[in-house]
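Exercise 7 asks you to align residues with tokens for two separate proteins.
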Amino acid sequence: MNLFFTSRVVATRLIVLVLTWQLPSAALGQADPSTQSNPVEAAAPLLPDDARIDTAADTAVDETTPPRRRNGQPRPPAEPRFDIDLQATAELSAFLLRHLELQRFRTLRDLDASELERLLEAAPDNLRDLLGTLGYFSPVIEVSLTPATPSTSTSTATAPARSHLGTVKIQVEPGPLTRVASAQVYFKGDIATAPEAAEQREAIRRSGTLATGVAFSQADWDRAKTTALRQLTAQRYPAGRIENSLADIDAATQSANLYIELNSGPSVQVGAVRVEGIERYDPAMVERMVRLAGLTPGSDYDLTQLQAAQQRLAESGYFDSVFVYMDPANNPQASPVVVQVRETKRKMLVLGVGGSTDKGARLSVEHTHHRVPGIGWRALNKLQLERDDQLASTVWSAPVDDRGWRWISSGQAARQIDNFTTTTSQRLRAGQAQDTPDLDRSFFLQYDRARAVNSALRSLLPAPAESSVSANYAWTRRRFNDLVFPESGQGLSVELGVGTTLGDARLPFTRAQARWLGYWPISALSGEPRTAPLGEARPAADDTGRAGRLALRLQGGALWAKQTAPVPETQLFLTGGDTTVRGYGLRDIGVPQADGSVSPGRYLAVASLEWQRPLWRNGTRSPWESVVFVDAGAVANMPGDLRPKWGVGAGMRYNSPVGPLQVDLAYGLQSKRLRVHLNVGFSF
């Protein structure tokens, strides 16, 4: 068919050139009036959409853009030359009509009856191929044409050639569905015999093929092969390939026997680290980060470790771009780890403008020096101004050592306004920290000083400054399937501190705080089978279905000390706002005071339950999600006084390239107010 169309295109262009060269304009002017603006349009050959010719301009026409005539007016959209009446199940009809070859020719302007007959002869084979991709290999197909009734009002010479050609009637009985009877994976190369690859072989056999008994489809078969190859090349064997694959279909028994033969090639081990593009910073720092990701000399190739090294370097702040790879071509037994970087400027000034529903407009100024002369530490200085909060801070950090730890020191001065209370505070911190994508740890000494002034009671009660010193340990573990768009998994963060107040009354205190967040796909909870639109591969085990997921967030905190201990207010707890209890303003939930304001308390409890559901469009998941939620939070000075304040609401989330953008409308049951809450990104 393609050769036929191509030859007709060439012939048409030759005819146009001959007519243009030999016929005088007067002869062309004597043509039928209905074709006078385009002499060869009435006799134009049958061309597919991608080979149409606009003879007025002698250029190919794209049917997606309306062609123009000589007078500049766009040609009206082409009417369908025939109708299709497909009789099959609703799901099959939608799939077949979406992919049927006949659909491409319905709006072909010059399609005639003889060409349609040739298309109808090829239609059954096209339908069998489409049904075969779904596992139906014994269909019964009938294709017929019901001609249209000729119109008696047609008077022009070209109208009969352009009249409606009729209705193509297609009857499809798909027959029995073919199911997978067996699925075998065979190995060649080092993986076939290496003892250390036994676990990898079993993992490929378990998840790289289709389970027996399931319906066969081409999409699932293609996905199974892709999964098997991905698992092969992810560890030890980056040059692995599929040597052979076969889906043996037995139409008589409606069974499919699947075979995949994987050739691993030689195993690859990690060699030296080669850094390219580094000038401003120490190459030894890059090598340490690569080794900390697990790429030690002599270890097996691991794609996950390569990605971890690349992520660690990218998040270090020293580089604008990072690319980490291994090249085993010359020496698979000691393949070098190549790190290509583009460095950031040594000094950087960033001006920021933003805002939030909690804090209003925000202006910030940040200055970063990535390598302070003399000590080689990074210094980050920041000034941030908001409606009720102002902050000035400085953070100094050393490069990571061979164990992944780095020294940190910081200082900050802050001022925050909560109703009638203005709190000014200072904080100094020094210690060590270790950060990885899954686990963060730190221990540090901290000095706090805070002074809270109530404008309504200033003349009645003095407002002394309270201070303390404490030793703290913080630990955070993340087990999410995705650190930007999590859909399953959980995270836990714990912080413990022991300290003493300073000043005239030196009394000890203990402080603890914990956060936990978990995601559960609803289909996994209910046992609902994971499905996909007909013709597409079944979702993987960690894919979220149409029902979405549940997100449960819990948070608690406590400070134990004598009631008379003058603990700084920055060590106590407040809650409420965009990321805690929606329906209430920032830090609106605390211990109620006589003047109607709230003050921080010694005990905190927060809980939130969300139903996050993706929105689908035409069988495809869109970046939009709907959210409904219930939040509750309480703060008190005694555990028995904790009384939750509730917030309920709904919102929309857009999964943007920089992370989730969420807009929520929440109602506070105790405050009896509606609030809009904005939140960008996910962090834990």
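Second protein for Exercise 7:
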Amino acid sequence: METSSYFSVLQRRWPLVLACLAIGLLAGLILTPSDPKGTGNQWTSSVNVVPAPNSAKELNLAPVLWTSDGGEVARRVAKRLNDPDPAVLASKVTSQLNPDLGLLAIAGKAPTRKGAEDLATAWAQETVAAFSDSQRKTRQGQADSMTPQLDKLKADIDGLEKSTTNAPIGKKATLQAEFDAKRGQYTTLVAQQQELLNPLNDPKVEVMDGLKSTPDSSTSILAPTSRPLRIALAAALGLALGLIAALMVDRMDVRLRGRIQLEDAFGLPVIAEVPRAPRRHRAGHAVLVSGRPDSPVAEAYRTLRSALLLSGPPGLAYRLAGADPRQTRVTAMPVRRVSDPAPVILVVSPRPGDGRTSTVANLAAALAEAGRSVLVLDCDFRNPATHLYLGAKPGKGMSEVLLAEQEIDLGDVVRSTNIPNVRLITAGAPAAYPAALLLRAGEVVQRARHHADVVLVDSAPLLYANDTNDLVQHADAMLVVARSGNLTADQASRVGELLTRTGVPIAGVTLLGVDPTRSMGGGLKRGPRVPTARSGSVAGLVLRGRSDDPAGDSDEDTERPAPSWAKRGELAEREGESAEDGKGAHRAESPASDGDADAPGYRIRSAQERALRNGAADGAGLGPHFDTWSTVELGSEER
């Protein structure tokens, strides 16, 4: 896919991308804490707690570990660091005993190096202080528990001393021995108590020098400590997911958007591509051919007009006789007599929203620019809107004419519009049963041929109503309107099949809403027609484009097989040759007019003739086909 194609996808799927971006921002706001620095783990600082060198006895560090993991140390550190939540601080500190080295390692984590060092140091110091306090309380309790025993021994000693003094000589030795024993016990207990009460004899630990600080290995740009950065990261992830989703949805989208896709699906040529107009230009049912004549949309509709004038119904290309007295038979285009009926072009579309009505209005304005008088018949009784584009006043219209018991003069219902040389017969009053109205439309269409140079008929969507099938037999040509991205290949194929079975010539397809950057249908160019023996043959049509062969010369053009609509023309030619014994089905037909057999002109096939022709084709086993128009004789030159 080319870079321009990616931009086109984003232009079509921008709501999906914005939705994913909004979801990413919302997720970032909800999941990111208000203070990411408080929970970050960028730095780790560790410090060791070891027995003091002047400790009287070998110290067991297990009680020190218990003290470090207790809540008292957390409360002391929280008070020291002015942190209101000791539990959060405790979750940032780990204590690990190493009996082989005889030390207790305390590690603290914080977003900054200084914060980690302060936390580890404060935790170690408060652990030492808490352990010393706990040991002091424990030894004081042991000393206090010895006081009753000392008091009892002292009382016993005092009693024995009195008894020994007053005792007879025979018992004096025994009492003296008991007195000495009690006094020895008392002296030992007093010494033990003094040892317990002496602070110098308490087990001591200290914080070892050599604080170590290292950045956490899990820290990266994917875990920023700033809340705005985390929200921006979430938004970037949402945007990336939106882009991926847009590309996936576009890949799964089966709707037709390019010219080549529509030609292959319809089996019909695309004769005009109308770019997508800005929303401000489309406001208010504007007709851009007259309202903005210099816009790309107006030029596209003029291209459609030129295509119809060159290859459409024969009478469409001619002005009325006497319109220009300076024209001659050799140098000017042939003329149409007043008595000849004007051509009728039926504008159809597969689905609602294809832009059928806007195409009718703009095409009418473009034909009026070329000097044709145009009469528009609004036969879309289900959703009439032509009067909104052309600015016609409401009133009696097609429904009143078709329902009237007596014939109504069309001049009474023809209304002027805001566009010169364009008139309109509106749809009229709403009908309860629109399908019944069209059963009488043939006679009205035939009378309308004598009120203008061209008659344009707006109809209901082909796939949603049967109205078009009732009108097609009264038309000289059909113009299919499709909007880019509003139709699937199956629907387009069905429309092409239905239209070609009618036997009415199909001018082609008008593609609306084309992306201006992709208006050439994906970069492929249509090559020139290869001259053939018969005019109108499309058997030699090729589409040329750049070669994809890496081994080939990049400057050489390669041929792409002709689309299905070109093959249908070849099939029609073969069928005509078979039906007319090899004489050619696409010869020019001269009208059998009275008194003017030599005047150039064209005969419009009647509905009965087309039915007989199609019936003969069906009987031959070839099926329905395109009707073709004859070549134009300008003087002695055939074009």
